[in-house]
Amino acid sequence: MTVTVLFAAPPPRWDQYRAPLTEALAEAGVDARLVTEAPDPSAVDYMVFAPSGPVSDFTPFTRLKLVQNLWAGVETIVDNPTLTQPLARMVDDGLTEGMVEWVTGHVLRHHLGMDLHILNQDGVWRNDIVPPLARDRQVGILGLGALGTACARALAALNFRVTGWSRRPRDIPGIACRSGEDGLAEVLAASGILVLLLPLTPATENTLDARRLALLPGGAVIVNPGRGPLIDDEALLAALDTGAVGHATLDVFREEPLPPAHPFWAHPRVTVTPHIASETRPRSAARVVAENIRRGEAGAPFLHLVDRTLGY
Ligand SMILES: NC(=O)c1ccc[n+]([C@@H]2O[C@H](COP(=O)([O-])OP(=O)(O)OC[C@H]3O[C@@H](n4cnc5c(N)ncnc54)[C@H](OP(=O)(O)O)[C@@H]3O)[C@@H](O)[C@H]2O)c1
């Protein structure tokens, strides 16, 4: 039977996804009609969704078996009251690989103190500062999901001492895994460099507030490719002003694009990147979409389902 798949993402994405999705669905053996408009919503079987696209009311899609989000974060759709169908987030090898590269790059920048030389090409021969080896640097990762675990493993492979924190206890070889409030305090107290890869949910908002920022070692570096509201901005700015936090590399913000007048742009201890840490890659993501549709048609459980009560 032919299934109807609605691609409900902003139009420019269609140019990127049409060919990979068509190919992946064929490879998965799914007989699909891929459309960008649905004059009859009740005839749509699956939806590939991204925010700011054509769909915000899911009520008319009465036959829908799955909404497959194109992005890893689902905070803009998870509490949509019209969505009653299963929702899957994106777990894409390409997205994960990109995040590992971005996180590793920024952690190494701070670990090696690269700015000292990159920003000071002034004729002064500064050869007296030797960074410690990675084996002597503790990196904390908040969030040990698809992205956090991959980043933790990559950093551990470079010999960093990695501790991670998640909601449920985890067991990842080579990573000291912690959970719970005490576990968080332990991770923060140990982290010279702290990476945030939590999803944004009611439970994770302001994870780094003034009290928890104060648990970090003096001069610690924060790298946030997770979501802006994981951090209390005012508390972070206060900690940066005193040097209690040595630097923050921020990819995500409460308001995006980050307004030009926002103090983060001008702060000497902040690096702003414009939500580019990693992106879903059409070719590998299309295979994930196709596999989930294949599963739906075969009566197999969907992959990467979101727990609506937890929000991720
Ligand atoms: N900047 C970018 O370009 C970019 C790109 C992609 C994704 N992201 C962000 O990265 C986030 C993580 O993605 P992912 O695919 O790794 O998500 P994921 O697989 O769902 O993992 C989430 C992790 O966070 C933990 N967690 C959730 N709620 C928690 C809580 N209340 N307390 C402690 N730990 C909690 C989870 O714990 P359990 O293991 O116990 O479930 C899990 O380890 C996304 O939600 C998105 O916001 C950013």
Structure in words:
The protein is built from 9 helices and 12 strands. It has helices at residues 11-27, 93-112, 115-118, 146-157, 180-190, 210-213, 233-242, 263-266, 282-298, and strands at residues 3-8, 32-35, 46-49, 66-69, 87-88, 138-142, 161-166, 176-179, 193-196, 220-224, 245-250, 270-272. The radius of gyration is 21 Å and the shape is elongated. It has 312 residues and is an alpha/beta fold. The model has no long low-confidence stretch (mean pLDDT 98). The strands form 2 sheets. The protein has a 7-stranded parallel beta sheet with strand order 8-7-6-9-10-11-12, sandwiched between helices. A 5-stranded parallel beta sheet has the order 2-1-3-4-5, covered by helices on one side. Residues 72-73, 91, 95, 143-148, 165-168, 170, 197-201, 203-204, 225-227, 251-252, 275, 277-278, 312 line the site of NADP nicotinamide-adenine-dinucleotide phosphate (NAP).
Q: Which ligands does the model contain, each kind named once?
A: NADP nicotinamide-adenine-dinucleotide phosphate
Annotation, overall tally of beta strands: 12
Instruction: For the record, give the distance between the C-alpha atoms at the N and C termini, rounded to a whole number.
Output: 32 Å
Strand content: 15-25%
Oligomer: single chain
Mean pLDDT value: 98
Class derived from helix and strand content: alpha/beta
pLDDT < 50 stretches? none
Order of helices and strands: EHEEEEHHEHEEHEHEHEHEH
Characterize the biggest β-sheet: 7 strands, parallel
Q: Given the structure, what is the number of helices?
A: 9
Radius of gyration: 21 Å
Shape field: elongated
Percentage of residues in helical conformation: 25-40%
Order of strands in the sheet with most strands? 8-7-6-9-10-11-12
